[in-house]
Task: structure prediction
Amino acid sequence: DIVMTQSPDSLAVSLGERATINCKSSQSVLYSSNNKNYLAWYQQKPGQPPKLLIYWASTRESGVPDRFSGSGSGTDFTLTISSLQPEDVALYYCQQHFSKGFGQGTRVEIK
Amino acid sequence: EVQLVESGGGLVQLGGSLRLSCVASGFTFSGYWMSWVRQAPGKGLEWVANIKQDGSEKNYVDSVKGRFIISRDNAKNSLYLQMNSLRAEDTAVFYCVREEKNTFDMWGQGTVVTVSS
Result:
């Protein structure tokens, strides 16, 4: 099974500042036949289901603000919130779609 | 409106059974793989099972193999999860989820399953 490890477990960022979350997979999640990384990012607010933000490592889901961006390939990935807004306070999860495992989550708070 | 609505959760005793249902609307249900994903209280997300568009292929996480059965009825736009031999560690919110673009792109609000001794 592919194990997903996020860092840090939590971070506090000032409003308007950049937040960066890392995700590392124990095996490559790059699918060679289509050259796509099967890596997604989700946002979950209290009492709500997760919401898809990013898929294929760097493609923003429709309707997601452009302050959210994803990067990386193979085993190392990053979710960046370029300018943190109050509504971005949430848990964030990475997920690989080969065996569908999730990272443990990263809590983002306002400093 | 595109949505997934789960039902069937509740309180069940150790070793008991429960059947979850999910009704889809607003999209062509039969065109998508579908999954169940769960979240234990205060914990992270765990994929449980998925099923191919025509029901011909099913996959499960190891911890539920032999106990849970996923199924679907495309005529009723419905997804099901039959859960048997329930354990305390199965206590969770269970989400019905659509698969698309090699990811989970649409989630229901979830149904709560509590397994008690």
Chain B has a mean pLDDT of 97. Residues 93 and 112 of chain B are 4 Å apart (CA to CA).
